[in-house]
Amino acid sequence: MSGFGHECAEIVRAARPGSYRIGMILGSGLGSLAEEVEDAVRIPYSHLTEFPVSTVTSHSSELVAGTLSGVPVVILSGRAHYYESGDPTVMRTPVETLKDLGCDILLATNAAGSLREDVAPGNPMLISDHINWSGKNPLIGEEDEKRFLDMSTAYDPELRGVMKKVAQETGAPLAEGVYMWFSGPSFETPAEIRMAKMLGADAVGMSTVPEVILARFLGMRVAALSIITNYGAGLQAQALSHDQTKSVAQTGMARMKELVRAFVKEIGHG
After folding, report:
1. pLDDT > 90: what percent of the chain?
2. Is 40 a known ligand-binding residue?
3. Which CATH class is domain 4-269?
4. What are phi and psi of 111, to 5 degrees?
5. Domain residue ranges of the chain, discontinuous segments joined by +
6. Any binding-site annotation on 80?
7. CA torsion angle for 153, 61, 100, 225 (degrees, to 10)?
8. 262 is in an annotated binding site
9. Which of 27, 68, 124, 193 matches a 20 to 30 Å C-alpha distance to 114?
């Protein structure tokens, strides 16, 4: 660990004493969930050592600690992406901070493009596995033997089971599939989308995978949700844009919020 995670965790503890179990990372267009946290303290990333401030307009770049559905949570509202700096370790200190605060579960969310006709924009998709197409890894350069990390259950089966259970109970539609990470920031080409489908991907995006690797390296259990904002290149008539990503993410936010709140409540009180 870098050491900055402990320093940042102490800042959070000083602002809001207490222990936490669930940490969250909110992706494009999903930041409004952080506004529903009760008894909250909000700390801008710029006040936390080695926290990266995102250059993406839909990421607020603040840490929010409080309760959601009566459960203590720490939310990273906004993330920095590999494409902003070329550094796959850019979210290391934020993830380490969650771990130091006691979070043994990470729920990561993102906006993604669907490769399946039956998973339409505006709907959530539970990530069952990922394909690291970028080839970048936040553990490169790590000297500890722990760098040889088993990723066979990167997306915890038990947590996925809980997510599917609460989706069924709340009536929320929830597909499940494989997420493929492209580095971005340009969207994929139609040929790349055809390749991704052949390789077994169900959705594509530009984030999350490095954070999942880091969380697993730190011993955290992981669940992840994509809000589908578009179909992949060549699968829809309109051109892809970040404005579309933000707009559709907002449309699907009600479904995502209900699902996340129910998940947090089930984990926290289960």
Report:
1. 74
2. no
3. alpha beta
4. -100, 140
5. 4-269
6. yes
7. -20
8. no
9. 68
Q: What is the CA radius of gyration of the chain?
A: 17
- Phi/psi at 13 (5° precision): -65, -35
Q: Could you tell me the two tokens for 182?
A: 């492209």
The pair of three-digit structure tokens given for residue 144, joined into one six-digit string: 């500890």
Contact 115, 202 (CB under 8 A): yes
What gap in Å lies between CA 68 and CA 245, rounded to an integer? 26
- Residues 116-142: what's their mean pLDDT? 95
β 62-68/124-132 pair status: unpaired
Q: Which residue has the tokens 């043994």?
A: 104
Can you read off the two tokens belonging to residue 55?
A: 């250059």
111 assigned binding-site residue: yes
Give the max Cα distance, the chain: 51
Is 194 annotated as a binding-site member? Answer: no
- Nearest one of 181, 183, 225 to 204, comparing CA atoms: 181
C-alpha distances out from residue 157 to 9, 40, 171, Å: 28, 30, 21
What's the rounded Cα separation, in Å, for the pair 147 and 233?
35
- pLDDT at residue 53, rounded to an integer: 83
The backbone torsions φ and ψ at residue 42, rounded to the nearest 5 degrees and listed phi first, read -125, 120
> The pTM is what?
0.92
Contact 212, 138 (CB under 8 A): no
